């Protein structure tokens, strides 16, 4: 079968999954082209944009940075979903959530939908985070992270999750033997003012378009990053910053402003090509040396879900929903009609 025909068949069968995967990977490849052309801000020759299936090269780069600049002058930043942790089952996974987003927007009558709107979908995701375990994609990954921490670098877990998922997130990180609290930098909070820049000591508004300098951002960056005029609250604690789906490059610049110091190098790891390219772009525009890794260890699992039958996850959700509603296991589920 010709490649184009095969792609059309996949897109017709699983449109959201297909286009998300293609978009994410095209973003990554396009970014590589721009990197080669020197079109990412003020990129230095030392900065790099890489892909890896395992975490070992990340450790090697962290060691190289620590040897060159001293561990205390290096910031290691890492994503959670499909990077530090992966769901034990597809239900509630990153790829499942994006599929549900597509159904809400394009197939609102689908029998596979678990929510009637996005807010309800977020509530369902919270239930799944609370009731489902997670595991490191690689068995020795916590050891790799600990090795990086032993170099004396500062660390930051940067996740698109919202603050409402913090208890389940910290629980699973600790259960997997990740511990970031002792190696994460302290931040200075915004000074109080009439518009209340933060709500508590760990949950705050990341920026206001009319006061960007105060948040470590510029008008030009807000335009390039397409920052919303209605920012969502973010939170920081236990070494984890939860940015509620907002531009990770902008959020990292804001975080660096709050830390109040300059790092000689930043090391970043994420499974999504678009986040990798955004971090690279944001850092190099400021002349900050950065090595980013597009982490692909979970790609085969994501592909299997994207192009596979969704009956099983739909049945799993229906069983769980009935247990939550009635307090007892439901009768054996029958296959859902497509």
Concise account of the structure shown:
This protein has twelve helices and ten strands.
Figure out the total of helices: 12
Beta-strand residue fraction: 5-15%
Averaging pLDDT over every residue, what do you get? 85
* Secondary-structure element string: HHEHEEHHEHEHEHEEHEHEHH
Look at the helices and sheets and give the structural class: alpha/beta
Largest sheet: 8 strands, mixed
**Overall form:** globular
CATH topology: Rossmann fold
Number of domains: 1
What Rg do the Cα atoms give? 21 Å
Unreliable runs: 1-19, 192-200, 330-338
Q: How do the strands of the widest beta sheet line up side by side?
A: 1-10-9-2-5-8-7-6
CATH top level is Alpha Beta
The N- to C-terminal Cα distance equals 25 Å
User: Helical percent range?
Assistant: 40-55%
**Corresponding CATH architecture:** 3-Layer(aba) Sandwich
Describe the structure.
With 338 residues, this protein is α/β, with parallel strands linked by helices. It has a single domain, classed as Rossmann fold (3-Layer(aba) Sandwich), CATH 3.40.50. The protein is 44% helix and 12% strand. The chain has twelve helices and ten strands. It has an eight-stranded mixed beta sheet with strand order 1-10-9-2-5-8-7-6, sandwiched between helices. A two-stranded antiparallel ribbon has the order 3-4. A hairpin with a 2-residue loop joins strand 7 and strand 8. The longest helix has 23 residues.
């Amino acid at each position: 079968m010709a490649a184009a025909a095969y792609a059309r068949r996949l897109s017709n069968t699983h449109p959201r999954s297909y286009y998300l995967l293609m978009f994410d990977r095209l973003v990554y490849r396009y970014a590589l082209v721009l990197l080669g052309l020197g079109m990412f801000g003020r990129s230095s020759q030392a900065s790099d944009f890489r892909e890896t299936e395992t975490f070992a090269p990340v450790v090697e780069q962290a060691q190289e940075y620590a040897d060159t600049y001293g561990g205390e002058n290096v910031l290691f930043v890492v994503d959670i979903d499909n990077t530090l942790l992966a769901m034990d089952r597809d239900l509630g996974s990153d790829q499942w959530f994006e599929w549900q987003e597509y159904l809400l927007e394009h197939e609102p009558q689908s029998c596979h939908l678990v929510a009637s709107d996005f807010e309800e979908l977020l509530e369902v995701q919270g239930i799944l985070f609370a009731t489902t375990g997670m595991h490191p994609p690689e068995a020795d990954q916590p050891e790799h992270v600990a090795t990086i921490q032993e170099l004396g670098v500062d660390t930051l877990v940067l996740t698109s999750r919202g603050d409402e998922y913090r208890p389940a997130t910290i629980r699973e990180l600790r259960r997997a033997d990740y511990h970031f609290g002792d190696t994460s930098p302290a931040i200075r909070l915004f000074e109080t003012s009439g518009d209340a820049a933060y709500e508590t000591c760990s949950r705050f508004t990341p920026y206001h378009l009319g006061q960007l300098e105060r948040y470590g951002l510029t008008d030009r960056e807000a335009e390039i990053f397409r920052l919303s005029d209605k920012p969502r609250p973010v939170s920081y604690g236990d070494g984890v910053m939860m940015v509620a789906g907002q531009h990770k490059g902008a959020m990292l610049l804001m975080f660096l402003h709050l830390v109040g110091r300059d790092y000689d190098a930043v090391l970043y790891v994420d499974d999504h090509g678009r986040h990798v390219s955004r971090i690279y772009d944001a850092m190099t525009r400021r002349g900050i040396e950065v090595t980013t890794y597009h982490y692909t260890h979970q790609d085969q699992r994501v592909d299997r879900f994207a192009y596979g039958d969704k009956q099983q996850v739909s049945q799993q959700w229906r069983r769980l929903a009935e247990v939550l509603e009635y307090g007892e296991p439901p009768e054996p589920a029958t296959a859902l009609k497509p």
